[in-house]
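INTERNAL AUDIT FORM
Audit reference: QA-55
Scope: verify that the stored structure record matches its stored sequence.
Auditor: D.O.
Record contents follow.
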Amino acid sequence: MTDPLIRIAAALERLAPAPAPAPDFTAADAFLWHTAPDRLEPVMRVNRVDLAQLVGIDRARDTLLANTLQFARGAAANNALLWGARGMGKSSLVKAVHAAVIGQGAALKLVELAREDLPSVGRLLTHLRASDQRFVLYCDDLSFSHDDQHYKSLKAVLDGGIEGRPENVIFYATSNRRHLMPRDMIENERSTAINPSEAVEEKVSLSDRFGLWLGFHPCGQDEYLAMIAGYCAAYGIDITPETLRAEAIEWQATRGSRSGRVAWQYFTDLAGRRGIAL
Protein backbone atom coordinates (compact mmCIF):
# COMPACT_ATOMS: atom_id res chain seq x y z
CA MET A 1 0.00 0.00 0.00
CA THR A 2 2.92 2.31 0.58
CA ASP A 3 3.96 2.66 -3.08
CA PRO A 4 0.48 3.65 -4.37
CA LEU A 5 0.13 6.23 -1.60
CA ILE A 6 3.50 7.71 -2.48
CA ARG A 7 2.55 7.86 -6.16
CA ILE A 8 -0.79 9.52 -5.33
CA ALA A 9 0.93 12.09 -3.11
CA ALA A 10 3.48 12.85 -5.83
CA ALA A 11 0.73 13.25 -8.42
CA LEU A 12 -1.21 15.63 -6.18
CA GLU A 13 1.93 17.66 -5.58
CA ARG A 14 2.46 18.00 -9.32
CA LEU A 15 -1.13 19.15 -9.80
CA ALA A 16 -0.97 21.73 -7.02
CA PRO A 17 -0.19 25.28 -8.14
CA ALA A 18 3.27 26.61 -7.36
CA PRO A 19 3.49 28.91 -4.33
CA ALA A 20 2.88 32.52 -5.26
CA PRO A 21 6.05 34.62 -5.29
CA ALA A 22 6.48 37.30 -2.65
CA PRO A 23 5.03 40.63 -3.85
CA ASP A 24 7.50 43.14 -5.26
CA PHE A 25 6.55 46.28 -3.36
CA THR A 26 9.21 48.30 -5.17
CA ALA A 27 7.21 48.04 -8.42
CA ALA A 28 4.83 50.89 -7.56
CA ASP A 29 3.51 53.14 -4.79
CA ALA A 30 -0.03 51.73 -5.05
CA PHE A 31 -1.50 48.25 -5.47
CA LEU A 32 -4.85 46.51 -5.99
CA TRP A 33 -5.54 43.29 -4.10
CA HIS A 34 -7.15 40.53 -6.18
CA THR A 35 -8.19 37.01 -5.28
CA ALA A 36 -8.52 33.74 -7.25
CA PRO A 37 -5.59 33.71 -7.41
CA ASP A 38 -4.31 35.99 -4.67
CA ARG A 39 -2.11 38.73 -6.05
CA LEU A 40 -1.16 42.37 -5.60
CA GLU A 41 -1.39 44.24 -8.90
CA PRO A 42 0.82 47.35 -9.17
CA VAL A 43 -0.96 50.57 -10.15
CA MET A 44 1.48 52.69 -12.09
CA ARG A 45 -0.81 55.75 -12.38
CA VAL A 46 -3.27 56.44 -9.57
CA ASN A 47 -6.48 58.28 -10.46
CA ARG A 48 -6.35 61.25 -8.09
CA VAL A 49 -6.38 65.02 -7.78
CA ASP A 50 -3.90 67.28 -6.02
CA LEU A 51 -4.51 67.84 -2.31
CA ALA A 52 -4.69 71.62 -2.82
CA GLN A 53 -7.69 71.20 -5.15
CA LEU A 54 -9.87 69.67 -2.44
CA VAL A 55 -11.87 72.65 -1.19
CA GLY A 56 -14.25 72.84 1.77
CA ILE A 57 -12.86 69.88 3.71
CA ASP A 58 -9.96 71.63 5.41
CA ARG A 59 -10.34 70.03 8.84
CA ALA A 60 -10.64 66.50 7.49
CA ARG A 61 -7.72 67.16 5.11
CA ASP A 62 -5.39 68.43 7.83
CA THR A 63 -6.35 65.70 10.31
CA LEU A 64 -5.91 62.83 7.86
CA LEU A 65 -2.65 64.26 6.50
CA ALA A 66 -1.17 64.61 10.00
CA ASN A 67 -2.28 61.08 10.96
CA THR A 68 -0.79 59.60 7.78
CA LEU A 69 2.50 61.45 8.17
CA GLN A 70 2.78 60.16 11.75
CA PHE A 71 2.26 56.62 10.55
CA ALA A 72 4.66 56.93 7.60
CA ARG A 73 7.37 58.18 9.97
CA GLY A 74 6.92 55.23 12.33
CA ALA A 75 4.90 56.98 15.03
CA ALA A 76 1.53 56.00 16.48
CA ALA A 77 -1.53 56.63 14.28
CA ASN A 78 -5.21 55.72 14.13
CA ASN A 79 -7.35 53.85 11.64
CA ALA A 80 -9.71 56.33 9.96
CA LEU A 81 -13.33 56.21 8.83
CA LEU A 82 -14.30 58.92 6.35
CA TRP A 83 -18.09 59.06 6.34
CA GLY A 84 -20.83 61.33 5.08
CA ALA A 85 -22.35 62.92 2.00
CA ARG A 86 -21.66 61.30 -1.35
CA GLY A 87 -19.42 63.08 -3.82
CA MET A 88 -17.69 65.26 -1.21
CA GLY A 89 -14.18 63.93 -1.76
CA LYS A 90 -13.78 61.09 0.74
CA SER A 91 -11.96 58.69 -1.57
CA SER A 92 -10.21 61.58 -3.34
CA LEU A 93 -8.82 62.74 0.01
CA VAL A 94 -7.32 59.33 0.83
CA LYS A 95 -5.52 59.17 -2.52
CA ALA A 96 -4.44 62.83 -2.40
CA VAL A 97 -3.05 62.46 1.13
CA HIS A 98 -1.07 59.41 0.06
CA ALA A 99 0.46 61.41 -2.81
CA ALA A 100 1.24 64.32 -0.49
CA VAL A 101 3.00 62.05 2.01
CA ILE A 102 5.23 60.35 -0.55
CA GLY A 103 5.84 63.80 -2.05
CA GLN A 104 7.42 64.74 1.27
CA GLY A 105 9.88 61.88 0.92
CA ALA A 106 8.16 59.31 3.14
CA ALA A 107 7.99 55.71 1.94
CA LEU A 108 4.35 54.64 2.03
CA LYS A 109 2.36 52.19 -0.08
CA LEU A 110 -1.38 52.37 -0.78
CA VAL A 111 -3.22 49.04 -1.11
CA GLU A 112 -6.89 49.05 -2.17
CA LEU A 113 -9.09 46.21 -0.98
CA ALA A 114 -12.58 45.70 -2.44
CA ARG A 115 -15.40 45.19 0.06
CA GLU A 116 -16.33 41.83 -1.47
CA ASP A 117 -12.76 40.62 -0.87
CA LEU A 118 -12.84 41.28 2.88
CA PRO A 119 -12.91 37.53 3.72
CA SER A 120 -9.41 37.27 2.19
CA VAL A 121 -7.98 40.09 4.29
CA GLY A 122 -6.11 37.67 6.54
CA ARG A 123 -4.09 36.38 3.60
CA LEU A 124 -3.40 39.94 2.47
CA LEU A 125 -2.18 40.91 5.93
CA THR A 126 0.23 37.97 5.86
CA HIS A 127 1.92 39.49 2.78
CA LEU A 128 1.98 42.98 4.27
CA ARG A 129 3.22 41.85 7.67
CA ALA A 130 6.24 40.15 6.07
CA SER A 131 7.36 43.36 4.34
CA ASP A 132 9.54 46.13 5.73
CA GLN A 133 7.35 48.71 3.93
CA ARG A 134 4.52 50.68 5.55
CA PHE A 135 1.01 50.40 4.10
CA VAL A 136 -2.28 52.26 4.04
CA LEU A 137 -4.90 49.55 3.46
CA TYR A 138 -7.87 51.28 1.88
CA CYS A 139 -11.47 50.16 1.30
CA ASP A 140 -13.80 52.45 -0.62
CA ASP A 141 -17.57 52.66 -0.10
CA LEU A 142 -17.62 50.30 2.88
CA SER A 143 -21.03 49.30 4.20
CA PHE A 144 -22.87 46.21 5.37
CA SER A 145 -26.40 44.93 4.91
CA HIS A 146 -28.57 43.17 7.47
CA ASP A 147 -27.28 39.63 6.81
CA ASP A 148 -23.77 40.55 5.67
CA GLN A 149 -21.03 38.70 7.57
CA HIS A 150 -18.06 40.38 5.85
CA TYR A 151 -17.71 42.82 8.74
CA LYS A 152 -16.33 40.03 10.92
CA SER A 153 -13.31 39.73 8.63
CA LEU A 154 -12.63 43.44 9.03
CA LYS A 155 -12.12 43.18 12.77
CA ALA A 156 -8.74 41.51 12.17
CA VAL A 157 -7.58 44.62 10.32
CA LEU A 158 -8.63 46.94 13.10
CA ASP A 159 -7.79 45.63 16.54
CA GLY A 160 -9.27 42.14 16.88
CA GLY A 161 -7.62 38.74 17.06
CA ILE A 162 -4.52 37.50 18.83
CA GLU A 163 -2.09 38.96 16.28
CA GLY A 164 -4.01 42.18 15.81
CA ARG A 165 -3.22 44.66 13.09
CA PRO A 166 0.38 44.54 11.82
CA GLU A 167 2.41 47.51 13.03
CA ASN A 168 3.24 48.44 9.43
CA VAL A 169 -0.43 48.61 8.33
CA ILE A 170 -3.09 51.25 8.90
CA PHE A 171 -6.66 51.00 7.63
CA TYR A 172 -8.68 53.79 5.98
CA ALA A 173 -12.28 53.31 4.85
CA THR A 174 -14.87 55.55 3.22
CA SER A 175 -18.61 55.14 3.70
CA ASN A 176 -21.84 57.06 3.30
CA ARG A 177 -22.90 55.62 6.67
CA ARG A 178 -21.44 56.58 10.02
CA HIS A 179 -22.12 53.14 11.53
CA LEU A 180 -21.52 51.21 8.27
CA MET A 181 -25.09 49.87 8.19
CA PRO A 182 -28.43 51.52 7.30
CA ARG A 183 -30.29 53.21 10.15
CA ASP A 184 -33.53 51.36 9.34
CA MET A 185 -31.71 48.05 9.80
CA ILE A 186 -30.36 49.20 13.16
CA GLU A 187 -33.89 50.12 14.26
CA ASN A 188 -35.25 46.81 12.94
CA GLU A 189 -32.64 44.90 14.97
CA ARG A 190 -33.68 46.82 18.09
CA SER A 191 -37.38 46.23 17.58
CA THR A 192 -37.24 42.49 16.87
CA ALA A 193 -34.41 41.22 19.08
CA ILE A 194 -34.85 39.67 22.52
CA ASN A 195 -32.01 41.85 23.77
CA PRO A 196 -32.09 44.99 21.59
CA SER A 197 -28.76 46.44 22.75
CA GLU A 198 -26.84 43.23 22.09
CA ALA A 199 -28.48 42.77 18.67
CA VAL A 200 -27.04 46.02 17.37
CA GLU A 201 -23.83 46.30 19.36
CA GLU A 202 -21.78 43.81 17.33
CA LYS A 203 -22.16 45.66 14.03
CA VAL A 204 -22.18 49.19 15.41
CA SER A 205 -19.08 48.49 17.49
CA LEU A 206 -17.13 47.96 14.27
CA SER A 207 -17.17 51.68 13.54
CA ASP A 208 -16.00 52.33 17.11
CA ARG A 209 -12.75 50.58 16.25
CA PHE A 210 -11.78 53.51 14.01
CA GLY A 211 -9.83 56.02 16.06
CA LEU A 212 -10.61 58.83 13.61
CA TRP A 213 -14.12 59.65 12.42
CA LEU A 214 -14.00 62.34 9.74
CA GLY A 215 -17.40 63.68 8.68
CA PHE A 216 -18.16 65.04 5.20
CA HIS A 217 -21.25 67.20 4.77
CA PRO A 218 -23.04 68.71 1.74
CA CYS A 219 -21.30 71.84 0.48
CA GLY A 220 -22.79 75.30 0.09
CA GLN A 221 -22.89 77.28 -3.12
CA ASP A 222 -19.76 79.32 -2.30
CA GLU A 223 -17.74 76.16 -1.67
CA TYR A 224 -19.11 74.59 -4.85
CA LEU A 225 -18.03 77.60 -6.93
CA ALA A 226 -14.65 77.73 -5.17
CA MET A 227 -14.00 74.11 -6.15
CA ILE A 228 -14.61 74.88 -9.82
CA ALA A 229 -12.52 78.06 -9.67
CA GLY A 230 -9.68 76.01 -8.21
CA TYR A 231 -9.86 73.51 -11.06
CA CYS A 232 -9.85 76.35 -13.60
CA ALA A 233 -6.74 77.86 -12.01
CA ALA A 234 -4.97 74.50 -11.87
CA TYR A 235 -5.60 73.76 -15.56
CA GLY A 236 -5.17 77.32 -16.84
CA ILE A 237 -8.75 77.84 -18.06
CA ASP A 238 -9.61 81.51 -18.45
CA ILE A 239 -13.29 82.23 -17.79
CA THR A 240 -14.98 85.30 -16.34
CA PRO A 241 -16.41 84.92 -12.83
CA GLU A 242 -19.87 85.88 -14.10
CA THR A 243 -19.89 83.21 -16.80
CA LEU A 244 -18.48 80.60 -14.42
CA ARG A 245 -21.10 81.37 -11.80
CA ALA A 246 -24.03 81.29 -14.24
CA GLU A 247 -22.97 78.05 -15.94
CA ALA A 248 -22.03 76.27 -12.72
CA ILE A 249 -25.29 77.14 -10.98
CA GLU A 250 -27.29 76.02 -14.00
CA TRP A 251 -25.30 72.75 -14.06
CA GLN A 252 -25.97 71.94 -10.42
CA ALA A 253 -29.66 72.86 -10.84
CA THR A 254 -30.03 70.23 -13.57
CA ARG A 255 -28.39 67.67 -11.26
CA GLY A 256 -30.48 68.64 -8.24
CA SER A 257 -27.48 68.67 -5.93
CA ARG A 258 -24.15 70.32 -5.14
CA SER A 259 -21.02 68.35 -4.31
CA GLY A 260 -17.37 68.01 -5.19
CA ARG A 261 -18.31 65.36 -7.75
CA VAL A 262 -20.84 67.64 -9.44
CA ALA A 263 -18.24 70.43 -9.48
CA TRP A 264 -15.75 68.14 -11.23
CA GLN A 265 -18.38 66.99 -13.72
CA TYR A 266 -19.15 70.59 -14.67
CA PHE A 267 -15.45 71.35 -14.96
CA THR A 268 -14.96 68.28 -17.19
CA ASP A 269 -17.67 69.62 -19.49
CA LEU A 270 -16.09 73.09 -19.47
CA ALA A 271 -12.63 71.72 -20.23
CA GLY A 272 -14.02 69.57 -23.04
CA ARG A 273 -15.68 72.59 -24.64
CA ARG A 274 -12.32 74.38 -24.49
CA GLY A 275 -10.54 71.44 -26.10
CA ILE A 276 -8.50 70.62 -22.99
CA ALA A 277 -7.68 67.04 -21.99
CA LEU A 278 -7.69 66.23 -18.27
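Auditor finding: record pair retrieved intact. The chain has a mean pLDDT of 84.
Action required: none
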